[in-house]
């Protein structure tokens, strides 16, 4: 998903200088200092602003169903959708939400606002704020806002990540596996056989054929890859029948 952004910024603030506006779990809009509200369950928050869609717009908006949260997560571009997909695929992420809050602060006499793209909650309880912007589109002003956001996040113990386009072929492989992320692709009896077969590394198609009819087995196999119960190299090349697949280390315990 990318490395945490640098936390330095040209502005000097503490947490009490930054306001956060968000929709609470009870549906009411709240506004107050981030120092007060930092421990809200933002991974369950409704978007702080509406997703705009209109005829002729150049970007694509929509909803991505996150298996992690079992809920819809909004996006405003294919790059944002891929970022949400990558968060959903990350085994450390247990929940995520889109545009969970708006940060507001004073820059001299001018008020400034920034709504991050995503908020994720990790299994250890850490919050992760994610902004999505291809590197080529990060101008000086955007870089300042992202650096400031990173510093604010660090002050309240959150991670901050600035991510752009996913690298190929990981992006293509992730998009393929995401088709099988829904629990309906899981069949207990087939999954158990797949774990047995891939306890030793096997080629994807060869291992699937050992379990049964390929067309019936592959959706379960891809689902287990999505869940990290099976593992394969998704970075070096396209996922295919000749890809080596094995039982993940945690699945062998």
From TrEMBL:
Domain of life: Bacteria
Protein name from the UniProt record: TnsA-like heteromeric transposase endonuclease subunit
Organism: Streptomyces chrestomyceticus
């Amino acid at each position: 998903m990318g490395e945490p952004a640098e936390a330095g910024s040209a502005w000097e603030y503490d947490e009490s200088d930054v306001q956060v506006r968000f929709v609470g779990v009870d549906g009411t809009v709240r506004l107050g200092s981030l120092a007060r509200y930092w421990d809200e369950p933002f991974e369950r928050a409704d978007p702080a602003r509406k997703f705009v869609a209109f005829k002729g717009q150049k970007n694509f908006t929509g909803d991505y169903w996150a298996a992690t949260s079992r809920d819809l997560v909004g996006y405003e571009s294919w790059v944002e959708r891929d970022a949400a997909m990558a968060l959903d695929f990350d085994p450390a992420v247990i929940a995520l939400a889109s545009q969970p809050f708006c940060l507001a602060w004073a820059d001299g006499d001018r008020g400034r606002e920034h709504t991050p793209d995503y908020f994720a909650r990790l299994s250890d309880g850490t919050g992760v704020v994610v902004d999505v912007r291809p590197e080529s589109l990060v101008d000086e002003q955007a870089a300042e806002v992202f650096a400031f956001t990173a510093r604010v996040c660090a002050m309240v113990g959150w991670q901050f990540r600035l991510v752009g386009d996913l690298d190929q072929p990981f992006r293509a492989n992730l998009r393929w596996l995401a088709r099988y992320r829904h629990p309906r692709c899981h069949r207990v009896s087939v999954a158990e056989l797949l774990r047995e077969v891939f306890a030793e590394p096997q080629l994807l198609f060869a291992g699937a054929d050992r379990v049964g009819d390929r067309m019936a087995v592959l959706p379960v196999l891809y689902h287990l890859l999505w869940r990290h119960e099976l593992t394969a190299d998704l970075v070096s090349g396209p996922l295919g029948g000749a890809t080596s697949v094995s039982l993940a280390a945690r699945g062998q315990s």
